[in-house]
Design brief:
8-stranded mixed β-sheet, alpha/beta, about 40% helix
Length: about 775
């Protein structure tokens, strides 16, 4: 006899889903799922009455272990999940015994009390019948089924499946075990209802988990191979593994994630301060040019509320080590701690600057032909997202709210839900969300949607984006829309390309409720007011107006991106000057184009095309005292931007796609505070178009409309200019940045009906 240790035989866990693998207390589920994921000798098969379509959301849920095999349709379908293809010749043998759906359905028409179930089903026909009626027709139904070469499987005294003869969960599982050459004693079956009975009858070690259907318990009472566990769901499966001595589960216990102290955890891509290396030390300083959202998010911690801000910082081996945690501002935010997620420069470049911009950004903005997909980059993206989730899990107090920001963190919710099922997860999507057919281009759409559905609340700028998300979910998974809300009067409905009449505000999927809301980000009106009151800005406004003289100033400010429609705008401006020569010398386009980071090489050709277009227009049309286009490829200080807003006659914002566009709101706020009457010309494909009633809307994909709308703004009467600006300013002033933050957080934490009624925003209560 050999003294060498024999390799362990693999263990196949063949388990029902509802009431079994998806049930039990949170700790037991976490322990079993970690065991299945981590143990090299454990294989997993889902054996379920669900149809193939109905298990897709579970396969896309990163919080669940991915099975190796799926037996669904009560044994009529058997799949290898690596490619979701049928396992042959097992599947073809079942198919050969099936007379066909229409043949069976037609034969069962003679029983009007049988109601066909509206669930996905293949190689079976599923019915419901009242128990009293079923007892009177049972024998006849079985006889008709037998005449077709089928048999009947009953469940809960009222459900029945017509299946190919000899096809049940147990028979298909046995065929799979034989095909895989597995040791039957190393197959553990688990279930909780009578339609799982056939698995126990095949002789495998089995467990009826706690709270099983009484009929199943009675039917297996005399089976020596079956354990009747005390714990329900996953806890019962773990009991069986120990009872049958199948595996050492304790050796693969999940890591313990002790809760932190933060009642609110903000997870954002930027730290609330800048880090600099000074004399070999990491020094924290306020942002030299903070975007408006950072002060707003910081305001939630202004009263000393315990909180954490999770963001990445670059871990450079040449720099001092990254501190795991650091105070943000002990005086202004005494309860706020920054939790650093250290990333190498390579990780930042791939995760944020390359993959997010080359794979996700084009699809998000409906430029799918520009998308470039990489499985290696996707794997790194998921690893980085897991580290964000682990950092958030370590910071959050029991029952805390974790507020996640934007598509770079798409995969955080599912991991966070697995690590900390007690926390409330809210996600705000800062970009637009594309239509379902375009989002489906992403190779990883199921995993992404499955992760977002792990949230309690998902917010978007406008209802159209929320509806696109709902459509994407509904085209991918079986989901129920349980609440809807009207979008008017807060948002435009039929008046622009991104308008929509109503939106889903609550989804129900696999027992979970996910609420959805529309929350357009506002602008920081107080910050703008303070800026306008400075002598520096007043001087700058006067200088700009003096340089422009009596000409109309058309202002365009955007960052370099193909979504912004910059080339289309330049071509339209050139066409306007050609078609209306009387405007030459009377209007100047000031175009500020913020360049992309040097690592983002995808934008270099666009930069060259823009510069060539500007050069052509100025070369053709310039005069000694007039340059048609004044082009600046640089970042302007915010004070300078405000001065340009104040000096402009027309703000020309024409993105081909845009999630919102805060520049439009900043312009309106400056004009309102400065008692100006500047005209906003806004693309109807920008999210802000659904909110900013009073803007001149334009279709940037239509060159003639671009010219028409700009000409309309230039020729507008003073009274109309004033009317439109007052309407716009009323919207921007009321729905400012601080209100956005308060309303989103209130909705995420369970807003009251009073708050919802006040804002008239479609928020799920």
């Amino acid at each position: 006899m050999s003294l060498l240790k024999q390799p362990a035989q693999p263990l196949l866990l063949a388990t029902d889903l509802d009431g079994t693998f998806l049930a039990g207390d949170a700790d037991a589920r976490k322990r079993l799922y970690h065991l299945v994921d981590a143990h090299p000798d454990v294989k997993l098969a889902w054996v379920t009455g669900r149809g193939r379509e109905a298990i897709l959301p579970l396969l896309a849920d990163p919080g669940l272990p991915t099975p190796d095999y799926v037996i669904c349709d009560v044994g009529a379908t058997v799949l290898r999940t690596a490619d979701m293809q049928p396992i042959q010749p097992l599947q073809s043998r079942i198919e050969a015994r099936w007379p066909g759906e229409h043949v069976v359905a037609e034969a069962m028409r003679r029983f009007p009390m049988l109601v066909r179930q509206e669930v996905p089903q293949e190689r079976r026909c599923s019915y419901y019948c009242h128990p009293e009626q079923l007892s009177t027709i049972q024998a006849e139904v079985e006889a008709v089924a037998a005449s077709l070469g089928c048999e009947v499987l009953y469940s809960a005294d009222r459900y029945l499946d017509i299946l190919p003869r000899g096809t049940q969960k147990g028979s298909t599982l046995t065929a799979l075990v034989d095909a895989l050459a597995l040791e039957p004693s190393r197959v553990l079956v688990a279930g909780d209802t009578l339609n799982d009975l056939s698995m126990y009858g095949e002789g495998f070690p089995g467990v009826c988990v706690g709270e099983s259907e009484p009929a199943l318990v009675a039917a297996t009472a005399d089976m020596d191979n079956v354990l009747h566990a005390d714990a329900p769901g996953c806890g019962g499966i773990l009991e069986a593994m120990a009872h049958f001595d199948l595996i050492e589960a304790d050796a693969y216990a999940p890591p313990i994630h002790a809760p932190g102290k933060a009642e609110l955890v903000m997870v954002y891509h930027r730290l609330p301060y800048e880090e600099h290396i000074v004399d070999g030390q990491r020094v924290r300083r306020p942002h030299s040019s903070p975007n408006g959202i950072i002060p707003s998010l910081l305001s939630f911690f202004g009263k000393g509320q315990p909180g954490s801000w999770v963001a990445w910082t670059v871990d450079d081996p040449k720099a001092p080590p990254v501190e795991p945690r650091a105070p943000v501002d002990a005086e202004r935010y005494p309860g706020l701690t920054a939790a650093h997620v250290p990333l190498t420069k390579h990780e930042v470049d791939v995760f944020y600057k390359r993959f997010s911009k080359e794979a996700f950004w084009p699809v998000i903005n409906s430029f799918w032909e520009r998308a470039r997909f990489s499985e290696d980059d996707w794997a790194l993206f998921k690893r980085v997202n897991r580290r964000f989730a682990e950092a958030a899990a370590a910071e959050a107090a029991p029952g805390a709210t974790v507020w996640l920001h934007d598509y770079n963190l798409w995969m955080v919710p599912s991991v966070l839900r697995e690590l900390r099922p007690d926390v409330k997860i809210a996600f705000f999507h800062h970009t637009q969300f594309p239509s379902a057919d375009i989002f489906a281009i992403l190779p990883w759409r199921r995993e992404i949607l499955g992760s977002l559905l792990a949230c309690d609340y998902v917010g978007f700028h406008i209802p159209r984006h929320a509806e696109n998300f709902t459509d994407a979910v509904r085209s991918t998974f079986p989901v129920e829309v349980t609440q809807r809300a009207s979008c008017a009067p807060r948002f435009m409905t039929f008046g622009c390309a991104v308008g929509v009449e109503d939106m889903a505000t609550e989804l129900r999927i696999d027992g979970r409720t996910v609420r959805i809301g529309a929350h357009p980000i506002g602008t920081d009106v107080g910050r703008i007011r303070a800026c306008l009151e400075s002598d520096e800005v007043a001087t700058d406004i006067a200088r700009i107006r003096d340089e422009i003289g009596q000409r109309k100033l058309v202002l365009s400010i955007e960052r370099l991106d193909y979504t912004k429609g910059i080339l289309q705008k330049l071509h339209a401006f050139e066409r306007l000057l050609d078609d209306s020569p009387e405007l030459q010398g009377r209007v100047t386009l000031v175009m500020v184009c913020v360049p992309a980071a040097k690592e983002m090489t995808v934008y270099r050709p666009l930069q060259q095309q823009i510069e060539q277009a500007v050069g052509r227009i100025n070369g053709r049309l310039s005069r000694l005292d007039w340059t048609p286009v004044r082009f600046f490829s640089r970042v302007l200080p915010f004070a300078s931007v405000v001065a340009h807003y104040a000096a402009a006659d027309v703000m020309w914002i024409t993105p081909l796609r845009d999630g919102l566009n805060l520049v439009a709101k900043e312009f309106v706020a400056v004009q309102g505070l400065n008692e100006g009457d500047g005209v906003l010309v806004l693309s109807e494909f920008a999210g802000a178009a659904a909110e900013l009633k009073g803007a001149v809307l334009t279709n940037p994909h239509d060159p003639a409309d671009l010219v028409r709308s700009l000409n309309q703004a230039l020729a507008m009467t003073p009274s109309e200019r004033d009317d439109r600006q007052r309407r716009l300013y009323d919207i921007v002033r009321h729905h400012d940045l601080s209100r956005w933050g308060r309303e989103f957080l209130a909705a995420a934490q369970g807003a009251s009906d009073e708050v919802n009624a006040e804002t008239q925003t479609p928020i799920a209560a």
